[in-house]
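Changelog excerpt

This revision adds worked examples to the README so contributors can see how folded entries look when concatenated. The first example is reproduced verbatim below.
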Amino acid sequence: MTATTWDETPVAIQTDEAELRRKEIGGDLSVALIRLVKGADMGPALKGLPDDMCPCPHWGYLLKGRLKLRTGTAPEAYDVYEEGQAFYWPPGHVPEALEDCEFVDFSPTEEFDRVIGHITSQD
């Protein structure tokens, strides 16, 4: 299937702060439907990955909210994304929700599955 809905997409990560649903949609790509609550910081979950950041590229669209994306080790190394923006996040980033966020994300399946596996193995 090359399309999916929220209800049809399997839950890959679910916590009090984040819900990530992921489904392979064709070729080597997966779609993720993601909700983060205000204040959710993915930094602790990404510890242990290269540079303690997500090593997977993502292309997507922010449906709701504002999100800070740390892109380096310096405190000033970040970008802010807002509702209605399409984005590309190269490898080496850490998301933090400045407001409740919802976004759609397209990523290489194999790379994203490694990140999801790392996060879920810490539970």
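The second example, added in the same revision:
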Amino acid sequence: MMVYFLPVISAAIGWFTNYVAIKMLFHPRKEMDLIIFKLQGIFPKRKPTLAKRLGKIVAKDLFTPDMISTKLQSNDSHDQIKSAVMEKLDEYLEEKLKGAEAMLSLFGGDQVVVQIRGKVEGMVDDMVPQMTLKISEKIENVDIEQMVTDKVMAFSDEKFEDLLMSVIKKELTFIEVMGAILGFLIGLLQVGLVLMS
């Protein structure tokens, strides 16, 4: 009769071993000396290597200085920058010219403001491409790989675990469940073998 419990026991063992294996990816966070061997979670132990690799991946494939420069040099970015500058200028003029309507009327009133704004807008049109070009040149000197590596290394082990878990939690849960399913199937196979003998 006990033989029929084998699938359930095997499923529990399959789930538990995978659960422990997944936990050992992150724990223990600090190295433990167990006399015959030292024990530490894989991710905390390999954090420097992972940080460096992540830095390389980001700097080479995800966020290169060339990508930033290309984005900055695009007409869309130029338009957005110009729009932001002109918006700030309009706010500035509105604030500074409050209560000066009488004085403005001596010099042509709103027409003068429109002319000033038009001149400034022309200057901004010329300045934005030059500005983004200079920024792009400076970006070439930014070491994105080192910045990412330093940022990851600065994470606490808890934060590092949270970061990784936010990316791979579903996959790790799937591995746990698959451990239980495979264990259950192996248990069924054992029951079949016992009953056939």
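Reviewer comment on example two: The radius of gyration is 32 Å. The beta strands are 32-33, 38-39.
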